[in-house]
Specification:
eleven-stranded mixed sheet; Dihydrodipicolinate Reductase, domain 2; Alpha-Beta Plaits; about 25% strand; Rossmann fold; binds L-homoserine; about 35% helix
């Protein structure tokens, strides 16, 4: 059978690794795909930088449009990242009747609806396994492996850089910026690391997961996003004492009232497997009605793990290249006419439990004042921890865990607690998820 010819856009960390793995594992890949798969052309900003040694006979150009317009090429691999140029190139490739493999989560999260509509019309495939959780085959698992199920929720640690930072803070008490710098040096962080730290990268990925889990359109703007830059070492320590770990979690949950999509620091009971996912590793917990819970764990960033997902997609496309377009796995898991616009819940209506930390006067009656506010707002307290004040200090730190309530009740209660004379400074709040399948 004729070899499948690829055009590679971007020879950065993942692009270089993709070229090397395709070359080094060529025989094994051909055994799986049923034919040879080879990159014939690649583009990078400067041809002077060349291709990695040993990646084979690949023509290198500076103009990425030369690749997407090359009539020899069957599949375009988009690994340049970003929005505008990537979108233009992908749309052009589709228009030229080429299949596309991309690792670009921002592109899919923001422009996926438009890209898939164009691909559908042209009868080509656009696949994006590497866009979510690096090397973990989470897209394929949800889209195909769980297709018998009604999926109730997806909760994941889906940013390796953020998880690496929180882990190092907890285990070694390291400084936030120092760990971030190391993540950048190791090639985990986004070009703009605020995407990692502020949860934007995780929100891109969560919006993709929600779409394939529930059959809803991609809607990045509807994801509530909070970063980890306000998580203090103090909170990490108190959470540990209460039997919890703080993780930057993405949660997509189906409820009677609508769908929750949110990314924020979260306390998770330490006995849950996902609470023990550390360093740059990612994990996604899926609750499905027939299977129950299943957990997918692996490297969420890095050159080879991401290349592993890119190449799995290439092999998938190579296998289905001759298949009638109507009989391929739909881009967003559900048939295009079955994508339903279920309402997304505003964060004020989302229900979670809470961890609160506040600094108060150490005198009789203060705890009673705070619990009265909670009682008035119908918030039930699950646990209270008061740290003994240091000698000579007249203020104490109080930690509280509440039961599940709506966000707006908590916001109202915090406003009122902050107005109490005995309470000083901010009331720090972190959401809690038990992840027990409720
Ligand atoms: N910056 C991302 C992360 C890379 O740290 O997870 C993989 O998408």
């Amino acid at each position: 059978m004729k070899p499948v010819k690829l055009g590679l856009l971007g020879v950065g960390t993942v692009g270089a690794s993709t070229a090397m793995v395709l070359k080094n594992n060529a025989a094994e890949i051909a055994r799986r795909a049923g034919r040879k798969i080879e990159i014939i052309q690649a583009s990078r900003r400067s041809v002077a930088a060349g291709m990695p040694a040993g990646s084979g006979d690949i023509s290198l150009v500076e103009d990425p449009f030369a690749v997407v317009n090359n009539p020899e090429i069957d599949i375009v691999i988009e690994l340049i990242g970003g929005y505008d140029l990537a979108l233009e190139l992908v749309m052009q490739a589709i228009d030229n009747g080429k299949h596309v493999v991309t690792a670009n989560k921002a592109l899919i999260a923001l422009h996926g609806n438009e890209i898939f509509a164009a691909a559908q019309q042209k009868g080509v495939n656009v696949v994006f396994e590497a866009a979510v959780a690096g090397g973990i085959p989470i897209i394929k698992s949800i889209r195909e492996g769980l297709s018998a199920n009604h999926i109730q929720s997806v909760a994941g640690i889906i940013n390796g850089t953020g998880n690496f930072i929180l882990t190092e803070m907890r285990d070694k008490g390291r400084d936030f910026n120092d760990v971030l710098r190391e993540a950048q040096e190791l090639g985990y962080a986004e070009a703009d690391p605020t995407f990692d730290v502020e949860g934007i990268d995780a929100a891109h990925k969560l919006c993709i997961l929600a779409s394939i889990a529930f059959g809803i359109p991609l809607q990045f703007d509807a994801v509530y996003t909070e970063g980890i830059s306000d998580v203090s070492t103090e909170d990490v320590v108190y959470a540990n004492q209460l039997g919890y770990r703080i993780k930057h979690l993405g949660v997509a949950r189906r409820t009677e009232a609508g769908i929750e999509m949110r990314v924020h620091p979260t306390l998770i009971p330490e006995k849950r497997l996902i609470a023990n996912v550390d360093g740059v590793m990612n994990a996604v917990l899926v609750q499905a009605d027939r299977l129950g819970p299943s957990l997918y764990y692996g490297a969420g960033a890095g050159a080879d793990p991401t290349a592993s997902a890119v190449i799995a997609d290439i092999i998938d496309v190579a296998r289905t290249i001759t298949t009638d377009a109507q009989n391929r796995v739909p881009h967003l898991a559900f048939q295009p006419d079955q994508i339903v616009d279920i309402p997304i819940l505003p964060i004020t209506e989302v229900q979670t439990a809470y961890y609160l930390r506040m600094r108060v006067d150490d005198r009789p009656g203060v705890l009673a004042e705070i619990t009265r506010v909670m009682g008035d707002k119908e918030i039930s307290i699950e646990a209270v921890l008061q740290k003994e004040p240091e000698t000579g200090v007249t203020q104490a730190t109080i930690i509280m865990l509440t039961q599940k309530i709506r966000e707006h009740q908590m916001v109202d209660a915090i406003d009122e607690i902050k107005r109490l004379e005995a309470v000083h400074g901010d009331v720090h709040r972190i959401r809690v998820e038990t992840l027990d399948g409720d």
